[in-house]
Amino acid sequence: MADHTHPNPLVTLSDSALPRLPKNVKAPIYDRSKLTPGIVHIGLGNFHRAHQAWYLHQLMQKGLAHDWAIIGAGVRPGDAAMRERLLRQDCLTTLVELDPDREAVEVIGPMVDFVEVDKHNAPLIAAMSDPQIRIVSLTVTEGGYYVSETGGLDTDHPDIQHDANNPDRPITAYGAMVAAYKARRELGAAPFAGQSCDNLLRNGDVLRNTVVGLARLSDPELAQWIDETADFPNAMVDCIVPATGEAELALARRLGIDDTAPVTHENFRQWVLQDNFCDGRPPWELAGVTITNNVHAHEAMKIRVLNGGHQMLANVGEVMGLQTIADCMAQPTVAAFFHKVQTNEVLPHVQAVPGLSPKDYLSKIEKRFSNPKIHDTTRRVAFDGSARHPGFILPTLSDALHTGGGIGGLALVEALWARMCAGTNEEEGLIAANDPNWTVLNSTALQAKNTPSAWLKMTHIYGDLVENAQFHSAFSHWLSMIWSLGAEAALRHYINSSS
């Protein structure tokens, strides 16, 4: 742990500075100049660097996978700023593990370049067209796959329409992937594997549907080639990684490193991966990755308990003015609410996985969420609820309704989300726009204050649940109580109820 009395000399992160890093900082022991790329990763944020890049770094430290280095990429204008920061420090990243009892620091270096961010993605297409790239991976958030209400590709979305009509000048990651597949096919090269690293059930299948569906709009023959020859492995990914702000930048400096894009993370990682790669893969299992063809049970447990649990906490946290997930778990009423919903209404619909029961998994999640060193803000976790609630909460709610299970707590979760989207917390503070569909959510939430059923008319979110009388009644009951008595009073009513 760093000496707080006598701070380490500040080292500006770069290849040349690696020998001068503080003694307590683990650094690459491999020759980065000899790394060659094998992966292009689109959406190079904190999670990727604390997760997939970390696993690759572990292999490189063992003398393995030196031909699988990462080239970073982005398709949004804001990604250019990250590119500039990382290139300035030779694509190195400082990772700080936040354990309640210690801080562990390491610098990782599996990333070797970051392609220029271009509106029509020509540099990205060129990078992915290179046959030495055998995997293209993505972290683009759960709502970034252009999935329609029926589960297929949203062909009416303007971005998809643009890429279908302009396949040589795409603006989406998927359009760029389609263009690169076309180039590789024309070269006679093998396709790359498309690897989603987002929190989606069957994320590889979702990615396949998006890419193949988009290709079909402009080139059905190419779409068939992609579908028949390219692989899209399913995976479950897990590590809590807060956003980087001034506190994280200051922490890195206190530990002796001037890093303009450091990453903090919890002392837990998990990656469960389907062994389905059309042109090879790094030996991930030697770095602790679980390779299995039964990914679904692992991802269902994680998405329903952890990701669903995040929504349970983040929405009520925003309403009650609690700043972080750990703050929510430290609030007795919120913690009791979380435990009851999970135990009574979520776990009955979660299958065990080898070596881990749903009950034991929940215990691990409660401990991880309670880590006070992880400043994971409720605002960050609550972002994009219009994608996260349908993905993380509503499948469990549907299962409970179909099997006659309890739904009171899950309906309360939805009511708390509706209350949050009204745009103010209970201290009359502003809750700023926090969803790509915020305008619609906000106006609907304000209408639902007096007419709760207005919220449930959003069929693009709730689908056939809007017709369910049991859910409608429970939701209306809780939302009315939240507005009249307050969120904590509603939580207490639920906790003390027999349901």
Account of the 3D structure:
- This protein folds into two domains: 11-293, Rossmann fold (3-Layer(aba) Sandwich), CATH 3.40.50.720; 296-496, N-(1-d-carboxylethyl)-l-norvaline Dehydrogenase, domain 2 (Orthogonal Bundle), CATH 1.10.1040.
- Helix content is 46%, strand content 11%.
- It has helices spanning 46-50, 52-61, 79-88, 122-129, 158-165, 173-187, 203-218, 220-229, 246-254, 295-320, 325-330, 332-346, 358-369, 378-382, 385-392, 394-403, 408-420, 438-448, 453-456, 459-462, 469-485, 487-496; strands spanning 11-12, 25-26, 37-42, 69-73, 93-99, 102-108, 111-114, 135-138, 193-196, 235-238, 257-258, 263-265, 270-273, 290-291.
- The strands form four sheets. It has a five-stranded parallel β-sheet, sandwiched between helices. The protein has a four-stranded mixed β-sheet with strand order 2-6-5-12. Strands 10-13-14 form a three-stranded mixed β-sheet, covered by helices on one side.
- Keywords: Oxidoreductase.
- This is Mannitol 2-dehydrogenase.
- Residues 294-482 form the Mannitol dehydrogenase C-terminal domain.
- It comes from Shimia sagamensis.
